[in-house]
Amino acid sequence: MTVRVGPLRSPRGAADAATLPVMIGIDFDEHERSRWAGRATAYERSFGRLCAYPAEALLDAAAVGAGRRVIDVGTGPGTVAAAALARGAEVVAVDAEASMRDAARRNAPGAQVREGVLPHLPFPAGGFDAAVANFVLNHVGDPAAGLAELCRVVRPGGRVAVTVWPVPQPPLQRLWGEAVAAAGVAAPADLPRLAPERDFPRTEAGLSGLLAAAGLADVRCATLGWAHRTDPESWWAGPAHGVATIGLLLERQPAAARERVRQEYDRLSARYRDTDGNLALPTAALLASGRVR
Predict the structure, then answer these.
(1) Cα dihedral 266→271→275→278 (10° resolution)
(2) Backbone Cα Rg of the chain
(3) Contact in structure between 139 and 32 (CB atoms under 8 Å)
(4) I need a labelling partner for 162 at 20 to 30 A (CA). Which of 14, 35, 52, 95 fits?
């Protein structure tokens, strides 16, 4: 099913809106972490605002409310953590990247912010009532192991909720690849991708199956659809500052190639401009949750 949700205004999460052709090469997790290192400010301005949209729906799916102890894994700049605090929850926010942890401390000052990375969180089993991971499983080399770790730290009867980007991609996610292709720029051949045996279909059925295989009960999955509103410069700022795979691709190009990508971005994104000059980019996310047995 498709659930329409209104926009949230604060940035959050650790997500990659660009998906480009890649080949198995360097370690997947190492590559993913490298794309966020020191880039919290650029991320908040661009992809972070996109990833903020499902925050309330994610917390609803995890039954996060007053008095609940919740862990927000891959907190990024702490938007989900801040939303959980606003509900009266006790929040531990975890991220592998120092600049993201600094941002989370500013944006969610009531949370306990810790360093940590899936699939090895520095917490005992069953210590939380809920675990949430907003666009995090799409950035780990072993999604099943990452999900198992989320389940491990939640008590029996507690809930786990996650989001990932869907495939086929919505127009927003396709935009970067379309701009790169139209500019005649080739994707790097040495980027990592998940080993086929560790991947899963990025569909409602595929994500539900991943949660069920982890032993979760009462698994639910829905597609959230919305139009991401942003100004063209803010949306360009993430890749321009090296964020995500598209940022790495631009970093490796000579100035003339980067300018061609920018020109194609301006041309292709024009179809999504409103009368105020801002973009309204159609997108979607998969939101799945389940109960720990």
Answers:
(1) -50
(2) 18
(3) yes
(4) 35
Looking at residue 12, its pLDDT comes to 33
Name the residue ranges covered by the structural domains of the chain.
2-291
pLDDT of residue 37: 80
Please check whether residue 236 is in contact with residue 269, taking contact to mean a CB–CB distance below 8 angstroms: no
One-character DSSP codes across 112-162:
EEEE-BTTB-SS-TT-EEEEEEET-GGGSS-HHHHHHHHHHTEEEEEEEEE
Residue 41 pLDDT? 86
pLDDT at residue 187 in the model:
80
User: Domain 2-291 carries which CATH code?
Assistant: 3.40.50.150
Q: What share of the chain is helix, strand, coil (3-state, %, to 5)?
A: 40, 25, 40
Q: Distance (Å, rounded) from C-alpha 14 to C-alpha 236?
A: 17
Q: Report which residue type is found at 20.
A: L
Largest distance between two CA atoms of the chain = 56
Residues of the chain with pLDDT under 70: 1-26
Query: With contact defined as beta carbons under 8 Å apart, do 220 and 204 qualify?
Result: no
Which of 193, 208, 207, 176 has its CA nearest to residue 283? 176
